[in-house]
Specification:
Helices cover 35% and strands 22% of the residues. By secondary structure, it is of the alpha/beta class. The chain has one domain: 3-Layer(bba) Sandwich (FAD/NAD(P)-binding domain), CATH 3.50.50. The protein has a seven-stranded mixed β-sheet with strand order 6-5-11-12-13-10-14, sandwiched between helices. The radius of gyration is 21 Å and the shape is globular.
């Protein structure tokens, strides 16, 4: 039986492990954290990710399909309406969201017991003995640094972001709201929970002594339910991260028997909501490539040829989406942009991004079980 070691127990690493286990490989996931947990935030799963998970027979509970929503300015005036039914008809799947902890839990349950080893830090490749090593160790990947020591480090996107999950005792709908250089997103989750985030253009490294008070002062004048969400959020659950990306594309996602996956390969800003989705895509393509040939080198070459152009294209699209969306600061340009968006019918806005979310995954070939007499 062929063996794979996956370095990193995040969404991409766990999905890769599921894919490789499904094609008959023995898989070990090495995660440096003492427990396999997820940050207290949500994640949007676009149709490309949902198709990929279905291909791997991963079925998610607590998944919340988004049924209505739109894009607004800070006063709550609608810029565009998002047509959920048109979106589903066009893309074949809904836009859905889930708490990251629920997603990580579901991925972990899809793997055999003992497959994941927590509290195990990998500092180099020399001690890893496997037919394939999957480097899914995040944006600041130590394995990427070892393989490409001269490759430029991740760069700051220009925006920082607060994120949280809280509960409101009333209905909220999917929404994104823009102001000059700032964005607030709201996504309802399962069982009354709401995932929200606020990003804005600023210098990197700035931290607030009282983050919740800062958010109240900065965004308390925005439209409902934004002030209520800030007020309902426990201060200790607020997450604050500067947003980085791998600004210089890698020349390859493969070196020897090592395949880079997820943020280690193509970290991107979140302005298209595709970071986790692209990692899930990586995992399916890797499993499919390794399932159709005994030649591992050829399979990894195929993985690189399929994933690098697409995911690096999504990185560029995410950067551009930020520039014309939440990072746009010129008041005149903001007014022109909003005016153009207001002219778009809901059915047309539902088609935006089809080149990304319309992707169809390959299907890994599963091993044929031995025949019993």
């Amino acid at each position: 039986m062929r063996k794979a070691i996956v370095v990193g127990g995040g969404i991409g690493g766990l999905t890769a492990a599921i894919g490789l286990h499904g094609i008959g490989w023995e898989v070990t996931v090495l995660e440096r954290a003492p427990e396999l947990t997820a940050v207290g935030a949500g994640i949007s799963l676009w149709p490309n990710a949902l198709r990929s998970l279905e291909t791997l027979d991963v079925h998610l509970g607590n998944l919340r399909e988004q049924s209505s929503g739109g894009l607004h300015d800070r006063q709550g005036r609608r810029i565009t309406r998002w047509d959920a039914e048109a979106f589903r008809r066009h893309h074949g799947r809904p836009l859905a969201a889930i708490h990251r902890a629920d997603l990580v839990g579901a991925l972990r349950e899809a793997l055999p017991a003992g497959c994941v080893r927590t509290g195990t830090e990998v500092t180099g490749l020399d001690d890893l003995d496997a037919d394939v090593i999957v480097a899914a160790d995040g944006i600041h990947s130590g394995l990427r640094k070892q393989l490409w020591p001269r490759h430029p480090e991740p760069v700051y996107s220009g925006s920082t972001a607060f994120r949280a999950v809280t509960t409101l005792p009333r209905h909220v709908e999917l929404s994104t709201s823009w102001d000059d250089g700032a964005e607030i997103g709201v996504i309802p989750l399962h069982d009354g929970q709401v995932y929200w985030w606020a990003s804005y253009v600023t210098e990197a490294g700035i931290r607030q002594e009282d983050p919740k008070s800062y958010l109240r002062n900065r965004f308390g004048g925005w439209h409902d339910p934004i002030p209520a969400l800030i007020d309902a959020t426990a201060p200790q659950t607020l997450l604050h991260h500067d947003l980085y990306l791998l600004g210089t594309p890698l020349p390859s996602y493969v070196k020897g028997r090592v395949a880079l996956l997820g943020d280690a390969a193509h970290a991107m800003p979140p302005f298209l909501g595709q970071g986790g989705c692209q990692a899930i895509e990586d995992a399916v393509v890797l499993a499919a490539a390794l399932s159709i040939t005994e030649d591992i080198d050829m399979a990894l070459k195929s993985y690189d040829e399929q994933r690098r152009p697409r995911s690096q294209g999504v990185v560029k699209a995410s950067v551009q989406a930020g520039k014309v969306g939440p990072q746009l600061r010129n008041p005149l340009a903001v007014a022109v942009r909003n005016g153009v968006f207001r002219l778009l019918p809901g059915a047309l806005t539902a088609r935006i991004g089809a080149g990304v979310s319309g992707w169809t995954p390959p299907v890994p070939r599963r091993p044929v079980p031995p025949r019993t007499p």
